Amino acid sequence: MYMKTLYELYADEIVEDTELSDETSNILFDFQQRNAKLLLKKLEKYGLAMLADSVGLGKTITAGAVIKHFIEENNAKRIYVVAPASLTEQWREDLAKVHNLFGGFEVISMQDMRKIEKARFIDQYAPVDLFVIDEAHNLRNDASQRHQELLDWFSENPDSKVLLLTATPINNSLTDFVNQIQLAAKGSLESFPVVFPTSKKNEVIDFFEAVKRLSSEMKQSENRGEKPDFNKVNRIMRQGLRHFLVRTTRKGIEREFGGLQGSDGSMKIFPKTSVTPSPYNFSDDLGSAIGNVINSNLHVFDDQNPRKLDVDSLLEQTQRTKHPLDLINEVARTDADYTNNVFVNVFQVLLLLGFSPYRSETYQHRFHGKTPEELKQFKLSPEESFSLQSQMSVHNMMRVTLLKRLESSQYALRKSLENYQRKLEYFIQTLDKGHIIKFKDMQEIQNKFGDDLDAVLQHNETAESDDQISLIPADPEKYNIAALRADLEKDQALITVLVELCQALGANDDKLNAFSELLTRIIHEQKSGKKVLVFSYYADTINYLRETLPSFVALDNFSQKSAFTSGENKANIENIVKRFSPKSKGGVDVTDENSIDYLFATDVLSEGQNLQDCGTLINFDLHWNPVRMIQRNGRINRLGSEYESVNIYNMHPETNLESYLKLVSRLKQKIDRIKHTIGTDQSILGEAENPIEYIDDVENEAAQQSTTLNLYNKEKATETFSSLDDDEEFLSEDEYILDLRRFIKDASDEDKARVFGIPTGKWGYLPETSRQDVLAPAVLALTRARGKTTDSETEFETHIFVETTETTQPVETIEALKYIRADVNDTDRRADKIDADRELIKRRTLSVAKNQAIKRQSPFKVTPSITRVLDALAITIPELNVRQSLNNIVTKQDQRSVKKLFDAANRDLKSQGQLLPNTIAGFEKAVRKLEQYDGDEKEVTAIEGLLYYAK
Questions:
Q1: What is the pLDDT of residues 237-249, one digit of tens each?
Q2: How far apart, in whole angstroms, are the C-alpha atoms of residue 518 and residue 313?
Q3: Using CA atoms, how far apart are residues 792 and 934, in angstroms rounded to an integer?
Q4: In this structure, is residue 752 part of a structural domain?
Q5: Does 593 lie in the same domain as 478?
Q6: Region 433-452: what's the mean pLDDT?
Q7: Do the beta carbons of residue 764 and residue 950 sit within 8 Å?
């Protein structure tokens, strides 16, 4: 009965009824064939699917099989592959080389909005059949312009299928996955029902709503300092993920297939990964040089020695609205010996920067000088409070950025400081003209007007109000302008000292010396070939290595055999990677003379590139998110690698590593709120943008810090990396699906016919282990509800487990399967002596299942502010049934537009005391649109009790 249960639940995971052409099957590994078939089934049934195989497992090739099937079998006329700009050429080459596809599709960069707009124009003549979105996690932010543009395009093609590709479907939060799926679902707010346990009962809710609740519960746990219930997260996520997700990992392949089995029967295994920490030390001479710079500039610090300041105390004092130098006498002194701790010494000075231009609102007379506790006493509007708190905490993000850059290279830090210095000067010039400029607008203004402030002012005199540059009057009645000027001058003086410190670091660059020695040794040893790939987070560091490294490395042809690439020169990337990895990239014209052996890159290469000609990787910077190591490793540890092992070397400072990581951790915990203000992909101090720099998660910080430390521990590094690569539990291959696959593979046709032919309504016993479990239900029923929606007549099918103990209620699928799962020894047949009122149990379980199957959450949460607007609308235009229309919202697009209307209405009520005509007209238009949709309710046409398990 266990296998019959799995067959009922996971029939979609069986691909015997889906066929690929012989030509396609012959070029795919077994797991790729199966995954391509699963994707085709999900695309046909649900209209969308996500392929989330681990890095290096050939997602492009698997997706190519789907594209080929659509062209040859479905007669598809329009197929679009939307990929990062750096991967578009690789897509064209892979589809041509591997699948012999030269047309019938178009590859577009997801950054090229003009080309996307042109493609959308053709929709009026022929709809799109299939969208393939590569590296779909780049679209996880549903507020981004790219996400919304593609959502509109997909919605204009309602019958199109959407295939998402990503190795990291969940980056920062669980909602990342939902945002990507809702994008592919054309904005639909409904998915599949899942059982969600609460403190009082189990209830069936939509999977999307369940993810929202899980995210909220996790955040509440973290705020209380408690560990989230990851067991619950796992159980609930797996209920919904299986409908959309197809995912295979390296270890999953080894468990299921024993390795990579090709069409010729040959078996290959993945290269093993060896991780080696590579420490570097700072010399006493460098420590003395740092001390000399600080001692010669004590006047900047009010004659206090910053090396005597307690870092923890300094962090807390600088959360106030005063400049840190004004609080230096209140900072506790330390007995710790920081004399030669280069990082701490430089950071003690960095902590004294005020970043006043980012915090101009804190210079209002009513706020300036106040502590966070005192500011809480002000009765501010939510918008004012959020803005003020954001400005209060923004300097913590600056500090994280500068601290990470300090570890990367003194050059990267110096470039950021020099950029900040230029922006300070521009801010001061604006202040001299009687205005305060918003820092987030400065780059746009400088791009448009350069340093000509008079041109900005002249523009504002003639431009329409919507076109004017936002400049705040520097009103001394409102702002403490004298304090603001003084604090700007303090930052200028501090930057001068910090640039001197960077020059001292550069004059005796111990990290660069250690790196050049490591690189030279690796090149001579050639453990995994002669090619070496070096990663840094920062383009500035790559540029620094380009300028300085050739004079450090004692190899005759090093300059000729090296290439340095970053986000600044993407156009040249494809040429460079072909010369670096000609076998995997098809570089037929690459010779010994023009080939590249040493490639230095930012994470512009960490997505999608096939570089398996290389077997050695060096991480020049510390890992702030260990998962990044997996993604980088995936560039060289891929299908087709000729090496038995690949080697990773991690550079890190040998001393005070743990305290350094804790320092970064403390700062990261303070920036969670500001992420929503600055965004995750903007340049902070004018440095080259690197989105990955800002999207590392602050959740589960302690566990991440422990993992990072282990990655730099000589004895634990390789084992820790291996465990990282094993996957998130709820993203890994489902153990129950694997049970079913094994049975289908190993069982005889007779056994399969007997098991799958078990009749509906069959009663049986729970396995012996579950019968001994006091928590196991008295009776567990698997039910199936079938029906259709009333408006669109879309058919649906839902399986729900229902338990009967003292009450009758739904049960989570994973929880039920734990009770039902039989082991190999539990095969004895038993006489049916079950003592239960079967008809009563059947009526109760089917009643619960039917009610839960048609249950629908309200798509729009009515808050007090929403109620206030609804009440005002009922008075102003009583004939307009806005409240009822809210139940007809079924897409994110409608939800977003209606929310904007309510926000505008609340502003009207606050400022005018009534709703303005434009707002009323907006509601009338929205209601007319929503009334066209009559509410797609679910209607159950058949409800069955499939199987019953008794204790």
A1: 888 888 888 988 8
A2: 38
A3: 10
A4: no
A5: no
A6: 70
A7: yes
Domain of 37, CATH number, reads: 3.40.50.10810
Establish if 829 belongs to a structural domain. Answer: yes
Most distant CA atoms of the chain, gap in Å: 94
pLDDT digits (tens, 9 = 90+) for 646-672: 899 988 887 666 666 665 555 554 433
Please state, in angstroms and as integers, the Cα–Cα distance from residue 517 to each residue in 62, 510, 554, following that order: 41, 11, 9
Residue with tokens 């009513």: 366
Pairwise CA distance, residues 23 & 654, whole Å: 54
- Report residue 57 as tokens: 């497992």
Domain end point (choices 507, 535, 563): 507
600 found inside a domain: yes
Could you write out the DSSP letters of every residue in 492-529? HHHHHHHHHHHHHHHHT-HHHHHHHHHHHHHHHH-BTB
Cα distances from 43 to residues 36, 46, 80, 224, 514, in angstroms, run: 10, 5, 15, 42, 52
- 838-843 contacts, C-beta under 8 A, 24 or more apart: 838/763, 838/948, 841/779, 841/781, 841/804, 841/948, 842/761, 842/781, 842/945, 842/948
198 pLDDT above the threshold of 60: yes
- Does position 782 have pLDDT exceeding 90, yes or no? yes
Average pLDDT over the chain reads: 82
224: how many CB neighbours lie within 10 A of its CB?
A: 8
Give which of 668, 657, 653 is closest to 398, Cα–Cα. 668
CB atoms inside a 10 Å sphere around CB 581:
25
Q: What is the pLDDT of residue 694?
A: 26
**Separation CA 452–CA 423 (nearest Å):** 14
CA angle at residue 674 from 671 to 676, to 5 degrees? 130
pLDDT digits (tens, 9 = 90+) for 175-197: 888 999 999 999 998 888 888 88
Q: Strand 202-206 and strand 193-197: pairing?
A: antiparallel
Q: What is the pLDDT of residue 18?
A: 75
- Rounded Cα gap, residues 501 and 503, in angstroms: 5
Rg (CA), the chain: 31
Using alpha carbons, select from 273, 278, 171 the residue that is nearest to residue 622: 278
pTM: 0.75
pLDDT of residue 447: 62
What is the distance of C-alpha 144 from the center of its chain? 13
475 phi, psi to nearest 5 deg:
-80, 115
Structure tokens, 893: 């697009």
Q: Which residue has the higher pLDDT, 549 or 56?
A: 549
Whether the per-residue pLDDT at 759 is higher than 90: the answer is yes
Instruction: With beta carbons less than 8 A apart as the criterion, state whether 689 and 679 touch.
Output: no
Q: For residues 931 and 593, give the distance between their C-alpha atoms in angstroms, rounded to a whole number.
A: 70
E strands, 378-459, in order: 435-437
**pLDDT band at 95; cut points 50, 70, 90:** very high
Does any domain span residue 751?
no
Scan for tokens 């006091």, then name that residue: 774
Among 151-165, 653-667, 922-936, where is mean pLDDT lowest? 653-667
Gap between the Cα atoms of 902 and 866, Å rounded: 7
The reported pLDDT for the residue numbered 703 is 47
pLDDT tens, position by position, 25-46: 888 888 899 999 999 999 998 9
CB-based contacts of 478, cutoff 8 Å, min separation 6: 364, 365
Domain of 524? 272-280+509-654+690-721
> Which one of 700, 721, 742 terminates a domain?
721
> Parallel, antiparallel, or unpaired for β 106-109 and 79-83?
parallel
